[in-house]
Amino acid sequence: MEGNAESTSGTNIGVYGVTASTAGYGVEGKATATTGAPIGVYGTTASPTGAGVSGINTSTTGGNAVQGYSLATSGNGIGVVGQTASPNGAGVNGVNTSTTGGNAVEGFYVSSTGSGTGVYGQSASGAGLSGNATAATGYNWGVYAQSASTQGQGVYGLASATSGYNIGVFGYTNSTGGVGVQGSSPGVAVAGINQTCDSSGACTTITGTAGKFMTAEGGTILQGVGAGNSEVFSVNSYGDAVFNGNVEIDGSLSVVLDVSKGGGSFKIDHPLDPENKYLSHSFVESPDMMNIYNGNVVTDRRGFATVVLPDYFEALNRDFRYQLTVIGQFAQAIVSSEIGQGRFTIRTNRPKVKVSWQVTGIRQDAYANAHRIPVSEDKPPAKRGAYLHPDAYGQGEASVSGSRR
């Protein structure tokens, strides 16, 4: 079946079909040839406001406006194919005006084997597949697709352009209770992989960003919830992160801003039995923003030794404190000259005495001066009566405060 609407103005339609039957079709086309490139339904229009193929089902209880089947058991058979050369057009456009349910576009791949696709969208620029759920209420989907294949995809979108900001799959909803894109699985619900794939389907991972999230100021960039829909971690638009559990880091941790925690330690393979044991140490903590420096020195024949500190020491620190310990013999040791010009002097009452020294300082850099850590503070009204660690106080999970200061 082929329909041409050759008028260049008005709302004209290449093929128009209407059915009021709950099991009927507005338009149905079958291409039974097993070779070549046959098309079940093909429609063309030259009008900027027309439709190549339009199907309307006026039944309020069921049926489909447009439905396509491909009976081919091999090759590249497609139930419905849509193509447009317009930069703002859509190859396939589905609109569901119901505010209570239904899908704008729905695709099923029912085979349980092979590499099938429920809905396939491809674009050289822009969006391979775009779906809008415009209902302001309810649980609605921009695009819904289903595949029963063990190797298939419910939705597969390919943006083949190698430059520009193009999107393989784009999901959007206007509902404050809706979801733009959602993945559900007993395994991995959503996975992001930076890779390139050839025509045979062989893929190679490449360097890039596997997941990217954005929100306006004051919003939540990323949130994880557990049983009972309780928050287990979140990251807001300012980069503040909350983890309501333990955090284990296998590598190094570099802290630029503040970190608030209930406790902390390092955990490594035990150096005496690395295959069978762990070794853990607790962090050293202080109410001050304190830096610690230490070392060993041996006094000279007159009982003097000069300790040279890093060149940034006095710019970074203030309120210096000293600890001296004599090693190997009974002797007295004092700080004969306090810190100045990046050094201080130790004196012992005997020559050639080994002294272990420790110096601490309180940070006075610009960031530390602007962001002193409050040692004791009142909880905000919304958090009073709740606990950061309720189990330590014999309280239930409902008492979790769930916030940093």
Describe the structure.
This protein is an all-beta fold. Among the domains are: about 220-280, no CATH class; about 290-370, Immunoglobulin-like, CATH 2.60.40; about 375-405, no CATH class. Helix content is about 0%, strand content about 35%. It has 2 helices and 23 strands. The protein has a 3-stranded antiparallel β-sheet, with no helix packed on it. A 3-stranded antiparallel β-sheet has the order 18-23-20. A hairpin with a 4-residue loop joins strand 14 (about 230-235) and strand 15 (about 240-245). The longest helix has 5 residues, at about 365-370. The model has no long low-confidence stretch (mean pLDDT about 80).
Indicate the topology.
Blueprint: E1 2-5, E2 13-19, E3 42-45, E4 51-57, E5 106-109, E6 117-123, E7 130-133, E8 144-147, E9 153-159, E10 170-173, E11 195-197, E12 203-205, E13 220-225, E14 231-236, E15 241-243, E16 265-269, E17 278-282, E18 290-298, E19 304-308, H1 313-316, E20 317-327, E21 333-340, E22 343-348, E23 354-363, H2 366-370
Parallel strand pairs: 1-3, 2-4, 5-8, 6-9, 7-10
Antiparallel strand pairs: 11-12, 13-14, 14-15, 16-17, 18-23, 19-22, 20-23, 21-22
- Would you tell me the structural class of the helices and strands? mainly beta
CATH class of the domain at 290-369: Mainly Beta
How many angstroms does the end-to-end distance come to? Answer: 68 Å
Share of residues in strands = 25-35%
Key traits:
mainly beta; three-stranded antiparallel sheet; 2 helices; 33% strand
What's the short version?
By secondary structure, this protein is mostly beta strands. Among the domains are: 220-282, no CATH class; 290-369, Immunoglobulin-like (Sandwich); 376-405, no CATH class.
